[in-house]
Amino acid sequence: MPRIVVLSGGVGGGRFVRGLAEVVDPAELTVIGNVGDDLEVLGLHVSPDLDSILYGLADLGDEERGWGRADETWHALEEAARLGGDAWFRLGDRDIGLHLVRTDALRRGEPLSAVTGRLADALGVRVRLLPATDDRLRTWIQTAAGDFPLQEWFVARRHRDEVDGVRFEGAETARAAPGILAAFGDARLILIAPSNPYISIWPILAVREIRDSLERRAVPCVAVSPIVGGKAVKGPADRMLARLAGGTAPAHVTQCYEGLLDALVIDEADAGSVDGLAVRTIVTRTLMTDAPAGRALAEAVLASAS
Amino acid sequence: MPRIVVLSGGVGGGRFVRGLAEVVDPAELTVIGNVGDDLEVLGLHVSPDLDSILYGLADLGDEERGWGRADETWHALEEAARLGGDAWFRLGDRDIGLHLVRTDALRRGEPLSAVTGRLADALGVRVRLLPATDDRLRTWIQTAAGDFPLQEWFVARRHRDEVDGVRFEGAETARAAPGILAAFGDARLILIAPSNPYISIWPILAVREIRDSLERRAVPCVAVSPIVGGKAVKGPADRMLARLAGGTAPAHVTQCYEGLLDALVIDEADAGSVDGLAVRTIVTRTLMTDAPAGRALAEAVLASAS
Pick from B96, B103, B104: which is nearest to A96 by CB? Predict the structure, then answer.
């Protein structure tokens, strides 16, 4: 029975989940993936975070590029671009194969959680991966230049606009995907992956039923900070923390999860800046440079929580 | 101004159209393509005949295979198949790029004729290619084993079931695509490509406005027989003619176009079986083994009609 619930974004979260799946029975794990950065491009429903997690667990991801499929080709997108189609969001041919299957299933009325389960089964993934919600929930980035859908800001505008805030379209009415509330009920541990709090974890917490489950938890909730030495490993998490929380110290990370955390796992490089931290800290090496590092981080987190 | 209108199916018709475009100004040609074998597969709207014509004219087709794109890869379909998606209809990666652009445009409400025009422009094709109709029109094959959508019978069942009849779903209400009636009005010559009469040309003629235009024509209409020496060059045209028209002689081909033809172009191999033929015959070599052969056929047809 799944006993560990992980809230996760894409790349960093995916690596962490992969490390976890190597140190506990994968069937013990329920991963709740962010869908706030899902998008429709060329008519395809793309779920970048779910796919990063899935590709990581199935050992199909491109480790060097950090996203998408290994041994990928780009012929469909090249052709679409030549014919006037949208090509700003990079979709490889193998990746498109998955998006076609998912999009077709969604159009036939299958919920995203059911499709995701089928895809995971087909790829031999034993971790249970659930989207935060089957309902439409989309992250919008508020900037001085206007509000943008997450991927447009992140990819097309290369996250150059400073972020004044985030909002989650559809969150008011979104229900937790089937299986999530039961997973919280059975859990002996809740983990928050080292993902960007604002655009990877908040969209999950924006689902009322999920936030409620965390607030009422009877088991520990431990977050892994996405910050190493005051900097984001990848992406704009540090810039967003500095602007929206006032800094990139561990205390600024915990501010993002007020009332939801029992402990924060931080990197050795940040051990000197734990002033004002209201939760227990666990100091370890959090940089997942390779698979063994991901496993070691997972082991440290589990050891601290047990 | 386009002065020649050609009714065409996919592969054989596409070769003929390509030959024509090499011997007259492509801007003189309006090609009306069959859409009866269009299908939705993996959520993609595929128009096999329009695409065969387009790929031929843009010199992108795989000459050896006879369909699809040259230098093609199959990664998206491989992946879709592994994930439980439909893979009975072979779609290559470059081909999928085009289907994505078309499907997305159709979902946004752009008519098929407009999308097709954009695709042709993007590929530098100067021939005007129009679908017979922007409305949904689908060919069904009636057999002892039941009725099948064209592609299911042709591809998935490998046209093994003998055909008792064909019907065209949606034909009653289908309107000719914009530009078709004007093209007939301006035409000095109407040609019917060497395509399967029943499943490539009849679905075009099933559009009432198109059949009416042909019946009321003031200019010659010349068909090229798809039969060489009593056999189809490719596909089931000979079996269908034998069963539905009683034979594969030129007279059986003209039966398919009763009241619509002024002349029939036949192969030298069929010159001895013109008994009972009510229209003028033009005897030449109709087998388009290569591009020069396609050009020669086009020249012979145009010479006979002028």
Answer: B96
Examine residue A97 and state whether it is found in any structural domain, yes or no.
no
Q: Do A83 and B101 touch (CB under 8 A)?
A: yes
**CATH number (domain holding residue B23):** 3.40.50.10680
Does residue A86 fall inside a structural domain?
no
The stretches of B90-245 forming alpha helices (DSSP H) are 93-107, 112-122, 150-151, 180-186, 202-205, 208-215, 237-244
- For residue B129, CA distances in Å to B99, B103, B298 come to 17, 18, 18
- What's the complex ipTM? 0.93
Contacts of B43 in chain A (CB under 8 A): 43, 100, 103-104, 107
Whether residue A193 is contained in a domain is answered as yes
> Whole domain around residue A54: which residue ranges?
4-61+113-305
> pTM of the entire structure?
0.94
CA nearest to A85 within chain B: B101
The mean of the pLDDT values for chain B is 95
What is the interface size between A and B, counted as CB pairs within 8 Å?
Answer: 113
| A96 belongs to a structural domain | no
Q: What does the pLDDT look like over A162-211, one tens digit per residue?
A: 999 999 999 999 999 999 999 999 999 999 999 999 999 999 999 999 99
Question: Are B100 and A73 within 8 A, CB to CB?
Answer: no
Interchain contact B77–A (C-beta under 8 A): yes
Q: Which residues of A touch B42 (CB under 8 A)?
A: 100-101, 104
- How many structural domains compose chain B? 1
* Tokens standing for residue B79: 């992946």
